[in-house]
Specification:
The protein is α/β, with parallel strands linked by helices and 502 residues long. 30% of the residues lie in helices and 17% in strands. A five-stranded parallel beta sheet has the order 5-4-3-6-7, sandwiched between helices. Strands 17-16-15-18-19 form a five-stranded parallel beta sheet.
């Protein structure tokens, strides 16, 4: 059954258990309370799950568990499926036997359950966290699950979304419910206008650098403030995507006119009278004035500069004009040891300027930064320029529809003329999928979300940056402040001014 946006205009649980909460409520509490079916004495709740996304890599054990238990998928229309993690982004007409077996098993499982699959040949195919919002499958107020930690992305549209394990996914598919304990609430208020050449990715990295990778453990983050309100939907998706790197399982941005404009007319969004009814509900989804959060942090973004990670954790990040830190500069012995290990793995010396760090690879893609706006910002830098000698670059759109739109604008030619490979949609080099990886010892400027040891390949060295900064690094052959790039004169007499706000 094709998902059509009508099965969850309001939460699936139409008779929620009241939380007995009095006074102003947070956005998280409003969505959570609307989905509680039963509340146990220890605080654990049986929650109604509205929708779920599945992909080939994690669904196999979930379907196996269902078969062994003799259970069926309860509501196929609430599931959207596609292969994204393991599929190659080049040479799909020559899939190996192992990949074919995996894909055929995935297709068979979904067909038996009646679940809609976006095949590799379908232009709607792509990364689940890109396709869900793109299709309007993701909507404000829904509770959503996927067996992937970056499911937090969907909170950009005001959905309470989180990653689950394969056994939990099997339970969701069989029952549309899940046992959960509520998170504590954490509001991050960000004020100030982002400068030219500074993007939501820089903002996310700076926040993680300031707060640390465990700051959000046990919390649901709500992003608020004038900076967040000014972000477009791709920017909000990037911010919520990276929240898991601060330890949070979920993140939220209250839906507003930007959200509604993004959703209107999308294939799986409601239409007509259903759209009007949905808007009436969605407009109630914001934290009440005076709502109390368990933790609050304020961040001034007006002087934020482009960010680059230097180590093997997203929190090991500095501004492009800063120097690689030394272990003795760290706050405690554990941090000093993590610094020593990261410097050794990354092959960096304390006191080195980031602008002296040369790169071998550029990856523009992933569920963090593979939307059309991301590709445009990278193309603005690449236009009229060429990758430095010895640098290999890849651009991997987040979906087939994004690829088509980019090609209609001529962005593919911009990248190809600049020496980049133009690939099909998929997760790709974000986690070293087949044929898309970084060789041992190679250094990659990547728009993905994790720079862990071996994340992009055994021995790979990953530096997380924005799309504009990744393109700039590829052009220069080293990290460079994108804001410092001189304009390139176009053949028609116009100019390409690098560093436009992404």
């Amino acid at each position: 059954m094709q998902p059509d946006g009508r099965d969850a205009l309001v939460p699936t649980n139409t008779n929620p258990i009241d939380s007995n909460a009095k006074g102003p409520r947070t956005l998280y509490a409003k969505i959570w309370d609307a989905h509680v079916i039963e509340r146990l004495r220890d605080g654990t709740c049986l929650m109604a799950i509205d929708r779920q996304l599945i992909y080939e890599y994690s669904s196999t054990p979930a379907f196996k568990a269902l078969r062994e238990a003799g259970r069926a998928v309860r509501r196929p229309s609430s599931t959207l499926a596609m292969a994204d993690h393991s599929v190659p982004t080049k040479g799909r007409d020559r899939l190996g036997s192992g990949m074919l077996r995996l894909l055929n098993a995935f297709r068979a499982d979904c067909a038996e359950a009646g679940i809609t699959v976006f095949e590799l040949s379908d232009p709607r195919h792509g990364i689940v966290h890109v396709v869900g919002p793109e299709q309007g499958f993701t909507q404000p107020g829904l509770m959503m699950a996927c067996a992937d930690s970056h499911t937090s992305s969907h909170g950009a549209l005001g959905a309470l979304a989180f990653g689950v394990g394969s056994s939990e996914l099997a339970h969701v598919l069989a029952t549309q419910t899940l046992l959960q304990k509520p998170s504590k609430t954490f509001r991050i208020t960000i004020e100030g206008k982002l400068g030219s050449g500074v993007s939501a990715k820089d903002l996310a990295l700076a926040l993680i650098g300031r707060l640390g990778v465990r700051a959000g453990v046990g919390y649901a983050i709500e992003f608020a403030g004038s900076t967040v309100a000014a972000l477009d939907m791709p920017g909000r998706l990037t911010l919520c995507n990276m929240s898991v790197e601060a330890g949070a399982r979920s993140a939220l941005v209250a839906p507003d006119e930007i959200t509604f404009s993004w959703l209107k007319g999308r294939p799986m969004a409601p239409a007509g009278d259903l759209w009007t009814a949905a808007l009436d509900y969605w407009r109630t989804l914001s934290s009440d004035p005076g709502a109390v959060f368990d933790r609050e942090v304020h961040f001034d973004a007006k002087d934020l500069r482009p960010q680059v990670t230097w180590g093997t954790s997203p929190e090991q990040v500095i501004s492009i004009d800063a120097l690689v830190p030394a272990p003795q500069d760290q706050s405690d012995p554990d941090a000093a040891e993590r610094c020593r290990r990261a410097l050794s793995y990354m092959g960096l010396t304390p006191g080195t300027s980031l602008t002296d760090v040369r790169i071998d690879r550029v990856f523009i893609g992933s569920c963090t930064n593979a939307r059309l706006a991301d590709l445009r910002s990278a193309a603005d830098v690449a236009r009229g320029r060429h990758l430095a000698p010895g640098v290999h670059g890849m651009v991997v759109p987040g979906s087939g529809l994004i690829k088509q739109a980019a090609e209609a604008e001529g962005l593919d030619r911009v990248f190809i003329d600049a020496g980049f490979e133009w690939r099909d949609a998929g997760c790709s080099m974000c986690f070293a999928s087949p044929h898309d990886n970084v060789a041992s010892g190679e250094r990659c400027a990547s728009t993905s979300n994790r720079n862990f040891e071996n994340r992009q390949g055994l021995g790979s060295r990953t530096h997380l940056v924005s799309p504009a900064m990744a393109a700039a690094a590829g052009i220069a052959g080293r990290f460079i402040d994108v804001r410092a790039l001189a304009p390139v004169t176009e053949p028609d007499g116009g100019s390409n001014t690098a560093g436009a706000t992404t």
